[in-house]
Amino acid sequence: MKENKDIRWDQLLDLLAEEVAERLRAESRPDAAVDWDRPAVEAAERSQEEEPTPRPAEPVSEPAPPPEMEVGPEAEAEPATPTESTELEGPPAPPFPSHTARLLGRLALGLLALVIVINIPINRHGTTLATAMPDRRALVFRDGLVVKEEDDPEIYVYEDGRFRWISSLRAFEMRGYVWEDVHVVEDGFLEEHTIGPPIHVILKCRESPHIYLLEGEEKRWIVDIEAFEARGYVWEDVEFVSCGYLRELPDGETIPPGQGPPPQP
Amino acid sequence: MGNLSIIETILRDRETFFLEIRQGKGLGRKMRAMLISSVAFFALYGAVMGSSHSLWQALSSAAKLPLLFLTTLVVCAPTLYFFNLNFGSNQSLSQNVALMLTTITVTSVLLLSFSPVVTFFLLTTSQYQFFKLLNVGVFTISGIVGVTFLSRGMMIVSYGGDESARARRRVVWMWIVLYAFVGSQMAWTLRPFVGAPGLPFELFRQLGGNFYANVLASIGEILGFVTVR
Predict the structure, then answer these.
(1) Predicted confidence band at A181 (pLDDT cuts at 50, 70, 90)?
(2) From A186, B90, B112, B226, which residue has the greatest number of CB atoms within 10 Å?
(3) Statement to judge: residues A29 and A66 lie in one domain
(4) Window 61-90 of B, Cβ < 8 Å to A
(5) In B, residues 92-151, which contact A (CB 8 Å cutoff)?
(6) Could you tell me if residue A145 is inside a domain?
(7) Of the candidates A159, A192, A225, which is a domain's last residue?
(8) pLDDT per residue over A36-59, tens digit each?
(9) Domain for residue A96, yes or no?
(10) Domain for residue A219, yes or no?
(11) A96: which chain B residues are within 8 Å (Cβ-Cβ)?
């Protein structure tokens, strides 16, 4: 009995040594990438085609394996060698402890929970953990970037490589901006960049020939067409409003300055 | 969990897995499981990427990232199939698609495994260009490992066909280059995935420029040479 067992172990060790030697030979060849697959494919196909009995059947009364050889999951999983029935049921049971799927599932669930947590707003401005880091250095200069220095109420928009002052709330709204678009930057930030011409709204009512520039909350009368063109305005900039609305706006300095009290529309 | 168990088979018993594809065993079930797993993992990674901007960006990226990979697969699948046919392969289209799904499944698993690292940097750094390049690096590594699986799988699945091993390998690597180009252009078309700080959320950004120029510009900005405008 003991002799039989010894012979069997010798056979197994021989097979193992041959397989290792074959792998080493295959890897040492220059076209190893191709040839590596040859024994793998052939061996795997053989194992699927042939009877899945690499070892002689053990009698029922066979004693337990020797203590130096652990009966690990490999041995337990051996009956799961692919057969027709297992193929129909699902993938063959792997000859190793199956915990990767569970681990992946837990990792995915944990990540989902984390994504939810870091996207929960933590203050009334909607700041989340994911966006809580100061992002001064993260500014990306693209047309439409709206910025405001911390201690300055004036708002600028980045256009064509320059920052342009938006001179009134109406101009801000007319361009479709909302307060959430405004990126607060450090004081002095704009000094490092080119400043372009300001963005104004030019107002006129149909019943009056006069044209006004809206700046802040005041209307500034543009005295004549020369002053209008000298500032680079075009007729497409003019927005028509009601004369009543224009009359309600307080008067500012005329354009050009010092032209006396402005006429009311 | 059943769909996830196929990943364990791919990662730990790939020869058997590829052999079953070669024999056409359970292709439908395998493809369904890989599709479900990869879509879920890509969506999670996309949500992590988009979280750096806003919740809307997170949701958008979660939807767009699986779309990116699956569309690339659909676009590139006929090329691989017909080129293989041209070199005497007897594989079916389903077998080719199964191999490609294996590629994106492996890529998605690696992305998922990288996601804790990406989340860590998301929470501890604020530089947009760095975060963008970090993601480019993660995608590159995951993609390379994924296509390595494809190369290995193709060798096993097409072993014994009429075509020579050298020709098979050439077809696979040519296809991998094509896959990378199509994938990067698709990513550029579907951008933003991270979302630029200072700009409002946008589902798609206007076309213009290209992926490679943007990566170079980002590297330049990190090194202080240029400012990305």
Answers:
(1) confident
(2) B112
(3) yes
(4) none
(5) 109, 112-113, 115-116, 119, 122-128
(6) yes
(7) A192
(8) 445 555 555 555 555 444 444 444
(9) no
(10) yes
(11) 12-13
For residue A202, give the H/E element and its range: strand A201-204
With H, G, I as helix, E, B as strand and everything else as coil, classify residue B135.
helix
- Whole-number average pLDDT of chain B: 85
Domain boundaries, chain B: 2-222
Q: Are A174 and A207 in contact (CB under 8 A)?
A: no
In tens, the pLDDT along A118-171 reads: 888 877 667 778 777 655 445 667 788 888 887 888 899 988 888 999 888 888
Q: What is the pLDDT of residues A61-102, one digit of tens each?
A: 444 444 443 333 333 333 334 444 444 444 555 555 567 788
- Name residue, tokens 């988009």: B50
Contact B229 A161 (CB under 8 A): yes
Q: Mean of the pLDDT values across residues B159-173? A: 72
Question: In terms of C-beta density within 10 A (0-12 exposed, 13-18 middle, 19 or more buried), how is residue A147 classed?
Answer: buried
Residues of A in Cβ contact (< 8 Å) with B5: 91, 98, 101
Same domain, A233 and A207: yes
Residue A171 is assigned to a structural domain of this protein: yes
Residue B55 touches chain A, beta carbons under 8 Å: yes
Question: What integer pLDDT is reported at residue A54 of this predicted model?
Answer: 43
ipTM above 0.85, yes or no: no
Count structural domains, chain A. 3
Q: Is A127 on the interface with B (CB under 8 A)?
A: no
pLDDT of residue B86: 81
> Is there a single domain that holds both residue A72 and residue A17?
yes
Residue of A nearest to B110 (CA): A104
Question: Domain range spanning residue A206?
Answer: 201-248
Within 10 Å of residue A141's Cβ, how many Cβ atoms? 15
Q: Which residue of B has its CA nearest to A128?
A: B54
pTM for the model: 0.59
Q: Which of A173, A192, A211 is the last residue of a domain?
A: A192
How far is A141 from chain B, CA to nearest CA, in Å?
5
Verify that A213 and A178 share a domain, yes or no: no
Which candidate, A154, A196, A185, A190, places its Cα nearest to that of A171?
A154
Between strands A201-204 and A211-215, the pairing is: antiparallel
Determine contact, residues A198/A164, Cβ cutoff 8 Å. Answer: yes
Higher pLDDT, A68 or B35: B35
Burial class for A70, CB neighbours closer than 10 Å (0-12, 13-18, 19+): exposed
